[in-house]
Amino acid sequence: MTINLHPEARSDVPEMLRQPRRVLTIGAHHDDAEFGCGGTIAGWAREGAEVSMLVITDGSKGTWDESITAAELAAVRREEQRAAAAALGATGELVFLDRVDGELEHDRALQAELCLWIRKLRPDVVLGFDPWKRYMMHPDHRAAGWAVVDAIVAARDHLFFPEQLTGGLTKHRPDALLLWSADEPDHFVDIETTFETKIQALLCHRSQAHSTMQNALDDGRQAFEDRMQEWARRLGEPAGMDLAESFKLMRP
Question: Helices then strands (H, E): number in the chain?
């Protein structure tokens, strides 16, 4: 079930918001989409949507383990992302841009690269960070959010990066942009039936279990699941849902 509380909501909310054909998530790091929209895309994948996932950075700084090198961590995180995508049922493209973790800049080159992938994959729905989120600490998350919003605008209009429009590639306007970690959420997706799948996908990111997931493996797994469940409850409260993911809905 999907609920749209957008102040400009109309009775003709597109059906694709409930079941798109093609979906693209764009995260700064390898577990960002799983945290932000894992239950949502798992549900869409179950219903036949082709889900592609794009990871902008190489994830080479995301650890508290001083025994691992940046190169080793980047390799580990790439394989973890493959496993997580499989757990979610994401059968589309898995794209790694390998920008340096922690040093991401919202620049024209990144805008062009994301624009190109949107034009190539032609998603009905794009999902990414809300760059307007107050007090969002990680600089990569902020940069990724702005880059996604700008890339959506560029992808839809032919005079942005016209050099891309060769060999049959054309401009593309997604039907919807859903921003997770939203400052003012107005779109809610029930994830009660896909919550466990979201957890399974997150636990594929074993290198993060003792940092961002706060000791999620072994004895700490239940506590992690409980925290995630409480978070999903809080997100669903405005829409009267038991477990949900919430977004800011934008229409490109």
Answer: 6, 8
Instruction: With CA atoms as reference, report the closest residue to 239 among 185, 202, 200.
Output: 185
What is the C-alpha separation between 176 and 165, in angstroms, rounded? Answer: 22
CA distance 170 to 228: 40
Residue 119, helix vs strand vs coil:
helix
Identify the CA nearest to 190 among candidates 34, 13, 1: 1
3-state helix, strand, coil in the chain (%, to 5): 40, 15, 40
Residue whose pair of structure tokens reads 């960002």 in the numeric block = 32
Residue pLDDT tens, the chain, 252 long? 666 665 544 444 444 487 999 999 999 999 999 999 999 999 999 999 999 999 999 999 988 888 999 999 999 999 999 999 999 999 999 999 999 999 999 999 999 999 999 999 999 999 999 999 999 999 999 999 999 999 999 999 999 999 999 999 999 999 999 999 999 999 999 999 999 999 999 999 998 877 777 777 777 888 889 999 999 999 999 999 999 999 999 999
Encoding tokens for residue 72? 């080793």
Question: Which strands, in side-by-side order, build the sheet including 244-250?
Answer: 2-4, 187-190, 244-250, 176-180, 125-129, 22-27, 50-57, 94-99
Q: Which two tokens stand for residue 142?
A: 């902020």
User: Residue 242 carries which side chain, given as an amino acid letter?
Assistant: D
Name residues whose C-beta falls within 8 Å of residue 66's C-beta, 6 or more positions apart in sequence.
Answer: none
Distance CA 182, CA 238 (A): 13
